[in-house]
Amino acid sequence: MRAAVQHETGQDKLEVLDDVEAVGFGPGKVRIRIRATGLCHSDLSAMNGVLPQPAPFVPGHEGAGEVVDVGDGVTGLAAGDRVLMCWLPACGSCPSCKRGQTHLCLAGFMNAGTPNFRRPGGDVFGFAGTGTFAEEVVVAAHCAVPIPDDVPYEIAALIGCGVTTGLGAALNTAQVAAGSSVAVIGCGGVGISVIQGARVCGAARIVAVDPVPARREAALRFGATDAVAPEELDGAKAEFTGGEGFDYVFEVVGRSATARTAYETTRRGGTLCVVGAGAMDDTFRVNMFELFFDEKRILPSLYGGGDVLRSYERAIALWRAGRIDLEGLITHRVRLPEINDALDQMRSGTALRTCIEI
């Protein structure tokens, strides 16, 4: 079958090969024919080494498709079922799951060290234990979440990561209050989803911050009340908050410098929500006096900070009700052989989300 492979960490191009085999099928596993997958910035971060990932590997973790086969012991799924991929499934039995913090379950991360694919030259891993830039993938059954018939594959794929991450940061983690002021730094697909979440929560002012003019324009269409370039953020803080700072600031870039800017843009007693996935050697610093004196809440948000299955259902409900726009997030579409075009679109900032049709 065909798959896009990253041979070594640091390479900026993927090679689409037709000699890749999905492996590992057996008890408790399902085989999925991928129909659509989104390109998430985390895929780029894995390619360039910001996020740890064994190589060679097949990127992609934001996908949807149909079940081809189910292994022994699998219940609730059958061949032909339409599903989205959950790259961070809950095991249901670890301490985090028992506490109700299923998004902190580590079972899914353990899958990243087991090869999902094989080529004549040896094993190939799947990013985050999945690898959706392939025609088929074998994963644990609880990674396959059934979707209603009215949800297109490309919409389901986005819900599988970016939409859930962004909406959840606003609704679950920060719990944005109605009438509040919000700033969102980084307005790609996840940042736009944060903006939509803040709008659903009833925020009175939502300021989008991004260096790319097209993304700032898009943010206004998705619910931002204002959009500024990064160098204009101080002016926006002065104009809209009297210099006090915003009630909520979301960092959706994944860099310590941006997080520091977000911290300084948050009012005393306000909330900084860190959504971007950064590097292990990039350290965010605050001094002990400001940490104590300003009493700002610093809240990391992993995968939307809540039960992902409930978050999927909520996203679908909001989409059906017209409260959030998911179709508009897809600004570009390519086929798998043009995957490197999608990478260029994301690096340049011209795409919010590119849908790769497998």
Brief rundown of the structure:
This protein is α/β, with parallel strands linked by helices. It has helices at residues 41-48, 95-98, 107-110, 153-159, 162-174, 189-201, 213-221, 233-241, 256-265, 288-294, 308-320, 339-348, and strands at residues 3-5, 15-17, 21-22, 29-38, 57-58, 62-70, 82-85, 117-119, 122-126, 136-140, 144-146, 181-185, 205-209, 226-228, 246-251, 266-274, 297-300, 330-335, 353-357.
The helix content is: 25-40%
Strand content: 25-35%
What's the average pLDDT? 95
Distance between termini? 11 Å
Shape: globular
Radius of gyration: 20 Å
Computed structural class:
alpha/beta
Strand count, sense and barrel status of the largest sheet are: 7 strands, mixed
Number of helices: 12
Query: Number of DSSP strands?
Result: 19
> Which regions are unreliable across 5 or more consecutive residues at pLDDT < 50?
none
Task: Describe this protein with a few key phrases.
alpha/beta; 30% helix; 26% strand; 358 residues; six-stranded parallel beta sheet; seven-stranded mixed beta sheet
Describe, in plain words, how this protein is organized in 3D.
- It is a single chain.
- The protein is an alpha/beta fold and 358 residues long.
- Helix content is 30%, strand content 26%.
- It is built from twelve helices and 19 strands.
- The chain has helices at residues 41-48, 95-98, 107-110, 153-159, 162-174, 189-201, 213-221, 233-241, 256-265, 288-294, 308-320, 339-348; strands at 3-5, 15-17, 21-22, 29-38, 57-58, 62-70, 82-85, 117-119, 122-126, 136-140, 144-146, 181-185, 205-209, 226-228, 246-251, 266-274, 297-300, 330-335, 353-357.
- Strands 4, 6, 7, 10, 11, 18 and 19 form a seven-stranded mixed sheet that branches. A six-stranded parallel sheet has the order 14-13-12-15-16-17, with helices on both faces.
- The chain is globular.
- The model has no long low-confidence stretch (mean pLDDT 95).
